[in-house]
User: Which sequence fits this backbone?
């Protein structure tokens, strides 16, 4: 029904981020592979996340500039640690120190979330792992692009020293180049980039972009330039496919999964083409493919899929839906995952979910919206309406607007129309116009890729449609 460019408009901002991080992290990944510090990005990303978590523990917004400074400070300490441990003559390899740093940072972050008495610690940890790429705004795109360009320019200007320290450390020592100093600058610049990127992409996506394209490039090219070019092609291709297939799926896990599949495919092709015995190589690859097919398709077909949990969830969901009319006040405890209002009211008489709607943490606000999404009582709808007016995140504003519309509140429709005009996130605009066109049963020529000026006539028609609904 929609034209292809319109249907792909939600990919514009996320793809712009992917281009920037692919360009930088593939280059850095070539150095990381050669240095044999494969998990350094995971460690630095987790240390950066620990800084943001510590800022949250102190009462600051984890997405604020102050939290960014905490993240950068923690990452700088990690850069110092990794730079002074590379050439120490000891029995403990540097990779072990990096792994320990990751584990300690992850454990400390979980502990800080618990000490902060965050009721949504699980959601926060998941957010740190998978990020929120599809909701990125153009303002964040510009910030990440500027940081990646700055770090890339620094490495370009100092490429001789970095290449010497990474690929020819003996020559660097002979020339009097300070390996420890350039190691520190490498990890520090690496950490600056990761601190900016991790808040959008999450830890797992950073690791995938850093290691997998560089690994595939190493399989097929000897020189670093060829490895980087191949890695760029792989990274950009996987990014496009991952975003394309994640329209209604989590983008981070989807991209990571496609990266893993691409590594299997490219690795299998290289194994076959470099093998002296083609028949034996084909047999090995065929056996691996058959084993995977058996585990993924054959075994489930033979054993059957367990319906116990899904059946119970569906049963509870149906019960909740069936009893949704006229039973909100009588049996509120019957709703799945929702305590009775009387049980959640504190000494100030304010339900806990309502207070969470104004939390500085977007993860907590979204969890509160989800908790209130099926309630039809007036206090819950009033709380969601108030939250809608103050919500700074366009993606969450879209979710609240759709919930209110589902409960027959015209505030939801007004918010959807306002998102067409005000949102900077293409995906949000496309989702809003998709739902509005379904509700109205007609299209007024709004284009998600057009500027507000170009959409002026369509926005006027949507506003007139909204005014007409108010008078009915």
Assistant:
């Amino acid at each position: 029904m929609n034209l292809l460019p319109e249907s792909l408009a939600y990919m514009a901002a996320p793809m712009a981020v992917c281009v920037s991080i692919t360009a930088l992290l593939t280059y850095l990944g070539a150095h990381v592979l050669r240095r044999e510090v494969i998990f350094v990005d995971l460690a630095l990303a987790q240390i950066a996340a620990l800084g943001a978590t510590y800022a949250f523990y102190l009462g600051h917004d984890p997405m604020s500039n102050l939290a960014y400074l905490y993240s950068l400070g923690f990452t700088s300490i990690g850069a110092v640690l990794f730079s002074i441990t590379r050439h120490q003559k000891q029995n403990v390899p540097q990779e072990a120190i990096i792994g320990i740093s990751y584990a300690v940072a992850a454990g400390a972050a979980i502990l800080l979330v618990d000490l902060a008495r965050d009721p949504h610690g699980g959601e926060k940890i998941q957010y740190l792992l998978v990020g929120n790429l599809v909701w990125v705004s153009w303002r964040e795109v510009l910030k990440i692009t500027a940081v990646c360009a700055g770090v890339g320019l620094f490495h370009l200007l100092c490429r001789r020293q970095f290449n010497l320290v990474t690929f020819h450390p003996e020559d660097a020592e002979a020339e009097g180049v300070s390996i420890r100093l350039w190691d520190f600058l490498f990890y520090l610049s690496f950490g600056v980039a990761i601190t900016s990127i991790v808040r959008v992409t999450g830890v797992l996506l950073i690791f995938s972009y850093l290691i997998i394209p560089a690994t595939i490039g190493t399989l097929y090219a000897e020189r670093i330039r060829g490895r980087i070019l191949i890695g760029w092609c792989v990274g950009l291709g996987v990014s496009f496919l991952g975003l394309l297939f994640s329209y209604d799926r989590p983008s981070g896990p989807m991209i990571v999964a496609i990266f893993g599949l691409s590594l299997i495919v490219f690795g299998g092709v290289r194994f076959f083409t470099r093998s002296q015995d083609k028949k034996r190589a084909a047999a090995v690859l065929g056996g691996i493919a058959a084993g995977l097919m058996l585990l993924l398709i054959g075994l489930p077909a033979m054993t059957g899929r367990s319906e116990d949990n899904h059946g119970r969830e569906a049963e509870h969901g149906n019960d909740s839906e069936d009893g949704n009319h006229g039973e909100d006040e009588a049996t509120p405890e019957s709703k799945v995952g929702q305590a009775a209002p009387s049980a959640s009211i504190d000494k100030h008489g304010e339900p806990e979910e309502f207070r969470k709607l104004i939390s500085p943490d977007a993860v907590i606000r979204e969890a509160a919206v989800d908790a209130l999404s099926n309630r039809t009582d007036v206090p819950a709808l009033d709380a969601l309406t108030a939250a809608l007016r103050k919500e700074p995140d366009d993606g969450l504003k879209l979710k609240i607007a759709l919930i209110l519309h589902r409960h027959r509140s015209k505030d939801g429709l007004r918010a959807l129309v306002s998102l067409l005009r005000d949102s900077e996130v293409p995906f949000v605009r496309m989702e809003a116009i998709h739902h509005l066109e379904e509700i109205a049963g007609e299209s007024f020529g709004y284009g998600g890729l057009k500027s507000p000026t170009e959409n002026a006539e369509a926005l006027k028609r949507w506003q007139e449609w909204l005014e007409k609904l108010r008078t009915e």
The chain has two domains: 4-275, 345-471. The first helix runs from residue 4 to 7.
